[in-house]
Amino acid sequence: MCHVIVTCRSMLWTLLSIVVAFAELIAFMSADWLIGKAKPSSSEDGDNRTGGLQEPYHPTLGIYGRCTRISHMQFSRRDTLCGPYAENFSEIASGFWQATAIFLAIGIMILCTMAFVSVFTMCVQSIMKKSIFNVCGLLQGIAGLFLILGLILYPAGWGCQKAVSYCGPYASAYKLGDCSLGWAFYTAIGGTVLTFICAVFSAQAEIATSSDKVQEEIEEGKNLICLL
Fold first, then answer.
1. 45 with 78: CB under 8 angstroms?
2. Is this prediction's pTM over 0.70?
3. CATH of residue 193
4. What is its main location (predicted)?
5. Domain-located, residue 78
6. 65-72 and 77-84 as β-strands: parallel, antiparallel, unpaired?
7. How many helices and strands in the chain, by DSSP H and E?
8. Long-range interactions of 79-82: CB distance < 8 A, separation 24+
9. Poorest-confidence range of 35-39, 134-138, 165-169, 179-183?
10. What is the pLDDT of residue 58?
């Protein structure tokens, strides 16, 4: 018989698992890993024709994507165009970034799978007599290791030609040059920290769902058990 067991700690672990997976996925897909040095608007822009000041902008560069500004002369309007600069994996700007993409992708796939599985822990608490919380926690810890490897290798690619074109000639491995780090990089770091918190907190979720109070309510014949 399936027992739906919901506790405060198990729900927090489930929600945190989902948040971490989405945060890492959004960061990976974003082009805001590096913020390039300020560039003036095009000399053909409408601001020049009207005598106004040029408005500088900061192009951004991600692992496989980028954002830059394009001008529409007819309407004197500037739009930011974002999209992948690499049409396939081999066109990613650096071998280090290719390795980063692999490690992050593996880690994110594991996290997304665990986020999906965590939803069903309300009904299924064990697999082959092993706690599903402990299994998920172990896999989340492994995912965190993959994420760490990716984040360590990423700065080693700052010396590639693509990064130098955004960050200036002084950019090199682990040196930003004229660039600064964007929100996506910090989000990936924060998500990695939360991944290990998830892995540790899974043990608390397992303890909460197998507590004496839960067992007492199961013995009373309850199918829906909610404990704060």
1. yes
2. yes
3. 1.20.140.150
4. membrane
5. no
6. antiparallel
7. 7, 9
8. 82/31
9. 35-39
10. 84
